Amino acid sequence: MLKFELFGIPITVEPWFWATSFFLGNGFHYLQMGNMLPVAVWMVVVFISILIHELGHALVGRKLGGGVCWIRLWAFGGLAHQQGARFNQSSKAKMIAAGPVAGLALYALVSLIAIALWPTNRVGLDLVLTASTLWLYEPNNPELLQLIRETPMKTHVFIQFIWVNLFWSLVNLLPVFPLDGGQIAATYMKSSKKMHLLGIICGTSFAAIGYLLLNSYFIPMLFGLLAY
Fold first, then answer.
1. What confidence tens digit (pLDDT) does each residue in 143-155 have?
2. If DSSP codes are grouped into helix, strand and coil, which group holds residue 69?
3. Residue 203 and residue 150: Cα distance in Å, rounded?
């Protein structure tokens, strides 16, 4: 179990966090291939991205509500605990939203670095657009394809950072409990029944989108469970 401290906030990383990251990064496939570098990069990207997300919660929560906070990264992502904090409706919503906002800020930073690093013929911009759209955007840019062939690991790092922090941050804002969007909805909605009904509808819809449009099995499983 890994333990350290950042900005005065104790952080614990449980072994199951690494195991889940390995599984989501298709680690067994790379293990069979004898090339663990891509999944190692993925695990580092996931670690940094989720840590930044939880630090957003913890730092804003400490500033707005006081109290003692600590962070735990575990099998299903991360948790920012706020013990003894006092929030009103607005400050609580800001604390919850700070996590996805921190992820989107990291997405913007990495995207700007990519654009600045490869400014010639829109190579950096095309890389950002490609990674941001799960490869649904197919740029007619031979220089980008050449760059990916010549520096596969370097571009792989940028693609993973861009995709994870954009996609996961936006998904986390969906009004499905216990995602951040669901918790923000619960802060403002007086009826818990209506809040959970909204979560069921959104969770079921996104599960269908994940399966039909993104050809994903993980997304339907996750959001089917959340909807349930």
1. 888 888 888 889 9
2. strand
3. 40
Minimal CA–CA distance to 42: which of 157, 150, 149?
Answer: 157
Amino acid at 103: G
Q: Find the length of the chain.
A: 228
Element (H, E) at 165: helix 152-172
- What is the separation of C-alpha 5 from the centre of its chain, rounded to a whole number of angstroms? 21
H/E stretch holding 72: strand 68-74
pTM: 0.88
Tokens of 126: 């095309």
The string of pLDDT tens digits covering residues 171-198 is 899 888 888 998 898 888 878 888 888 8
**Residue with token string 């990383």:** 13
Of 168, 228, 154, the C-alpha closest to 196 is 228
d(CA 205, CA 224): 9
Q: Which residues pair with 3 in a beta bridge?
A: 12
Of 170, 164, 72, 187, which is closest to residue 110 (Cα–Cα)? 164
- Cβ atoms of 177 and 209 closer than 8 Å: no
